[in-house]
Amino acid sequence: MAHPVDAGIEDEAVPTASGSDHPRRPWRAYFEASFGFRNHWYPAFFSGQLAEGECRGQVMLGERILFKRIEGRVYAIEDRCVHRGVPFSVRPECYTKNTISCWYHGFTYDVRTGALVAIITDPESPLIGKVRLKSYPVEEHKNLVFAFIGDEAPPPLVLDLQPGFLDEELAIYPNGEHEIVKSNWRLAAENGVDASHVYIHRNSALINAARRPLPLSSYFTTREGMVIDQDGAPKGVVKGAGRRTSVWETEIEGVKVTSQYRPGINTDQSNVTNTSLWLPCGLKVDPFPRPDTMQFEWYVPHDEQSHHYIVTWGKRVKNEYESQQFFREMEVIWKELVVHRFNNEDVIAREAMEHFYASEDGWNQEQLYRPDMVIAEWRRLASKHNRGIQHQPGPKARV
Amino acid sequence: MAHPVDAGIEDEAVPTASGSDHPRRPWRAYFEASFGFRNHWYPAFFSGQLAEGECRGQVMLGERILFKRIEGRVYAIEDRCVHRGVPFSVRPECYTKNTISCWYHGFTYDVRTGALVAIITDPESPLIGKVRLKSYPVEEHKNLVFAFIGDEAPPPLVLDLQPGFLDEELAIYPNGEHEIVKSNWRLAAENGVDASHVYIHRNSALINAARRPLPLSSYFTTREGMVIDQDGAPKGVVKGAGRRTSVWETEIEGVKVTSQYRPGINTDQSNVTNTSLWLPCGLKVDPFPRPDTMQFEWYVPHDEQSHHYIVTWGKRVKNEYESQQFFREMEVIWKELVVHRFNNEDVIAREAMEHFYASEDGWNQEQLYRPDMVIAEWRRLASKHNRGIQHQPGPKARV
Amino acid sequence: MAHPVDAGIEDEAVPTASGSDHPRRPWRAYFEASFGFRNHWYPAFFSGQLAEGECRGQVMLGERILFKRIEGRVYAIEDRCVHRGVPFSVRPECYTKNTISCWYHGFTYDVRTGALVAIITDPESPLIGKVRLKSYPVEEHKNLVFAFIGDEAPPPLVLDLQPGFLDEELAIYPNGEHEIVKSNWRLAAENGVDASHVYIHRNSALINAARRPLPLSSYFTTREGMVIDQDGAPKGVVKGAGRRTSVWETEIEGVKVTSQYRPGINTDQSNVTNTSLWLPCGLKVDPFPRPDTMQFEWYVPHDEQSHHYIVTWGKRVKNEYESQQFFREMEVIWKELVVHRFNNEDVIAREAMEHFYASEDGWNQEQLYRPDMVIAEWRRLASKHNRGIQHQPGPKARV
Q1: pLDDT of A243 over the 80 cut
Q2: Interchain pair B252, A394: CB under 8 A
Q3: In Å, how far is B396's CA from the nearest CA of chain C?
Q4: What global pTM score does this model have?
């Protein structure tokens, strides 16, 4: 391998054993997962985006999915009629509570099961009762709707979520942000957990408004505590455990480059933000943006070149009143500052990497460095603990 | 084959003989014809779109073609200079009646033959008289200009037209509609002859305006009379012969779904519309939209992802006065109602199928049902009676 | 080969020796050079486009390059951070005179050498001093900045320039035109030197304004003096040496086609414009547009489908006063007339060829004719004297 090596990162990546067919073999599964990992739970949208009786179509991991809310519960099936493949969501049409009928020829499915229960244009068709669309397991918690994309029996949702997200006392802001961002989901996930990317936020309005101390960089030199992979629990990597190295000042050609707002003394370890990234694609930043709230993000694969970026916040509350107060404060004060004037820097960074990784062999040409240890650990963890690689969806899944 | 089978359609498609290399072998030629069928006549444009002495460029089956009207007659040649391949139609330039000169270097062709007759920038060139562009046989009838795309000697135009179109007493409306629609031509043709797609028109303004009885579906359960393939005559499939099954009402989860406007008794067979589809790509709907007019449509392959959709109407008339009255009525009353408020539903349906068939292996993944028998017959007929498959046009045809 | 042959062009192209694996073997290298030729100097931009301390990113031959001016001198390195491949030019950031820092993680490079000299987010990184971006040799003369794209030691710039361009007494207009044109660079170069393409300019405002005599065509029938390929000097082809054939009139079907403005007698050889094309991609038109000025053009490969078109003018002057007067006159009178109302015809022609050459096998399907002898010679010369073929840039160059 011709790469100059940053000891500690590259050593990780390159197995010494002969017989390796790829210089970065422990990450191979991850490198293949341009459409994401199969057999995992993913957030689809916020609860408020789907009212009783309504339908919505959405692409996840390249699959076209139709959601409908029936008696409060959300169900999901392929958004693609078995007959000629048109999406129901082009012109959603429901004659009854439990069904959707294709607007083209009236193929009618029970959205709870995917079963073809009627064909309006051929009521006696022998296909009725025999054909079935793929249906997706769905769960709804904390104002978010989750779908399981895969073929296996779904594990408990909690295994695919950032720890604590489902805790009873945690109120989740129901009106978070979501947008399609033009980069592969992995670039987004890696930027999320990137130990030293704090540097891109140095001029963010959020920092300036609060005159908030922010180091130029903050990372860990030991992998102790970095990887969380106990059986029967979410798998993730944590930035924020262990001994932290923070950079407040550096020098270039004799010119000092310093953090804009610095604390009187060096960083107060007790007040440090912990960031962690969890399979399949969820981030947790705790605390952020306030000492008593935490931020949750997801980078759901949309297609090979883009991901669905979902952001919201949580806070431990004692009662409904505190909940409502928290929601109001997020709405009025924080949403704009965090999403549009802070996270936006991350969106720019993810999109700026896309060309290199998509067209210039970036996965093999990149040069990681010491603060990327958490990224290297994430890739290793993801390669090892994912439940399958999603391939270009094309042929219709048959059940 | 893993598909659930709708008896009567799938049985047709799957030959029982061993040795079949494709489950839908009788349709193989059709499945390959993404650019259309070669050695057929196709309508190009309405006569009124090309005045005396004028030129127009058009893409048909992926080929770039230049048309010019000379002393009333329309001729067609490649729209691509033999020298460096630029289209004449970028800047059409005619110094004389019979010729077009390339605006780039003055290569001048007789549009009647394709022969290079002069080069303005090299009048003594040895190429003159030796080089020839492909020329296309052209015929003009009933206010439409037709071109023959192929290499063989063209058969009579009448063999590639909907029967009756050239009948002397048939007046054809000269100002029909035409647009490029973003779906492969086959999806358009199949939607045209689709027995049960009437369902998509149930809310059309045309139906509502007339409170016109329209079943939810109407199809045939026997192939008797469905296929027209006598020697020396147009080849097509007919929807409208034989015993018709009409669906006026069906039930989903106990909820009745009924046709919006129903006749007192069941459908009056004597007043039924017959729809038929003819090689290479012409539809006839008779009568429609009025009891004494018929509708003609064509889905001319443009490129792999789009077709040129042409629509007009015909009526049997006794004299010029009746003709003019018919034209006026189409213009004032019917054109908007039919084209923009009825056929538009078909355009949406064709485009909604494109993704599945182009990117998700739809030709092999689709699940036809009983009313699609006419589509299955069309595919079989087209596979058997086409005169050649058009492949991606690239290299220039040399004569 | 099925092509009708225009003696003198095709004979050149087709080697009689057996063993030829391509009918146009002497041009093979040229036909492969869709991204241009490697190991040559190319103009990048005008000096005035980069002030002291500023940065600009530009794509040349498919490579992303960052330029910075330091103490008056321009340097160039890859515009792609070694770490994760983002372009510096997305958000250029310079803490010191000699460096650029990546806006993402603060990787800081000496722009003079490409060396990684600091990492703001990991000041002690072992990568510092060990990693280096590709740096590009740069020269700046006559208000233009040139970069050497390649791996070899660069030859003197003068070898890759139109002869005379660097002459001391030649003032070069500093505010020339530049735009991205949507055609491959070779189509542009060939149109530039095309002997008979003068035909497309026959209705140009420049010609009409001056009532300037302009033949329909003007070309050479002998290759004597056409090819300039002495050792140690620029390599090019010249249109304008030898005996010229000018066409002022021709006839089509008995109709006379004549030049709009003709001199009383035939062309005055002493006042004829000489056009020449030089490796790698520079044109010289002398004199033009006035008897005492010459025009310089470049068609720098941008990517496979487009080139960077750069135009300016030169005049021999005695002092600064004459220079300024010349610049003023170009600015006020000529720039608009020449660039937007004359050269624009060339832009249309280049773009009109692109489809044929890119998608219809135009390089093998074209039919050259006698006036194209200079193009044939150019292809032969370029195939023989280029210093390497640029391939699709992808993997990062490592130093």
Answers
A1: no
A2: no
A3: 7
A4: 0.92
